[in-house]
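Entry type: protein chain
Record version: 2
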Amino acid sequence: MTLAEATTSPSLASLEAIFRDLHERLDVLGLRGSIWDARGQCVQRASAAGAACAALLNRAQGCPVWQGRVAGEVLDSGAPARAQTPWGCCVFGLPLRRRRRLLGAVVACCPAVDRLDEENLARACDELELDRTAVLGALRGGARHRADAVEDLQRVVEWMLEGTLALETAQGEINTLSANLATSYEELSLLYSISRSMRVTQQPEPFLRGTCEELLQVLNADALGVVVRARRAAQPPLTVLEGTTSLDRDALRRFVEREVEPRLARAKRPVVENDANGAAESVRNYAAVPLEMDGAGGVLVAMNKCAGDFDSVDLKLMSSIGNQAAVFVTNSRLYADMQDLLMGVLHALTATIDAKDPYTCGHSQRVATLSRMLAQAIGLDAQQVQQVYLAGLLHDIGKIGVPEATLRKAGRLTEAEFEDIKRHPVIGAKILSGIRQLEGVTVGILAHHERLDGRGYPQGVTEVPQMARIIGLADSFDAMTSDRTYRAALPLPAVLAEIRTNAGTQFDPELVEVFLAMDPGAILDEMRSAHSQTLALDIRKELSR
């Protein structure tokens, strides 16, 4: 019987390789060993040392009985024990411990050279019906030790066993440590990856979706879902579902509301349910952690472990990820609130400027809208489009420093009044220069009246930044298609002809071609139908990208 087959001793089965090595060492010492479990059952018998030893082992009253007696003494006392058979073999046993737990006994025996001539050997051979001459010859051929050397042999085997077990324990601890380090490395890599993706300008949904995708690779589950409650009752919860499952997002939301959230509320801690049949369609087990955040919270739930059950290790990892997700959502909400506040202030500023001249009411919003369209049409990235949009919204903010009489004057401006007008780009750029979030838009505000031929203002440069070119074209288009104090709105064909005529001098010719290909008539209708609240919402979305 091998140790792996010894179902009565699962603890010993894990040490089979150790005892295989131990038997080889006992052979070198001229000893035969057997292994006994904590209940006194022999799980690995001793091998024979020649024909005589084999004959004794195969007899009912032979060596196995004496080895069993010694093993019993060791198991009863927990201490080493020794005995001598009637036929001159010395037997000793040692307790087998692992982490202070008595697992069984190791018993070794050998024929003693100085005891083989005793009468007891002859009597034993008669009782066992063995040829005493053959047995004596065989035993003498295999005998290497005297009886008085057994104590030393016992001590050597004891040291050997202790060293082997210590080595096995250390190896087991190394293997466990390696496995734990591998798991910890995966978890740390996941946390690091998620932390790197936590940009405050990112929307919560794509962040949570990416988090679930990465967590699935480590958690070994079929599906992961997140449900985050909205702060306002009228808004639906944010629901993310990744992985393989028959549930859709609505079904996930119902499952969380009916099953998961009540369990979390009762437990007041993360929960595992490994027998969830009936809780939701196709969900056989799940693990869930709460997402703690200001206002409405949320839930992170993993469903259907691919192999086995969810455990505390899974909950620990999910809790770490859940904390990260909760921090991100909370910060995202705070950032959105700050953007609402900032855009409210900016909107109030532009409304203040437009209010100074009723003929230009809504002008800043229309310029911002067309500027964004142009920026998108020429392929600028989202960040650049956002900057162009804000610059268009705030391009006339400097008119707050221009006398109202000048802005509303119906006739031709005097040279001094025109000089006042030409100062508004500089005033606007100076006003916004102290706002860190708007540092990137001041160049567009400062140069939106510059021309490619150098006849613009305030600096008369010919190198006009791209943002300023975009805003300049949008500003001119809206100015020509709007009623002003000094004239009525120009018809669209005349406006387009004017833009085409000034391509290369006032306007960027490539930008003009892009604009003319965009259906200016439809753009004009869209700009005129835009409402302030809708535009404010669009601005907030742009900033939060």
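Comment: The radius of gyration is 44 Å.
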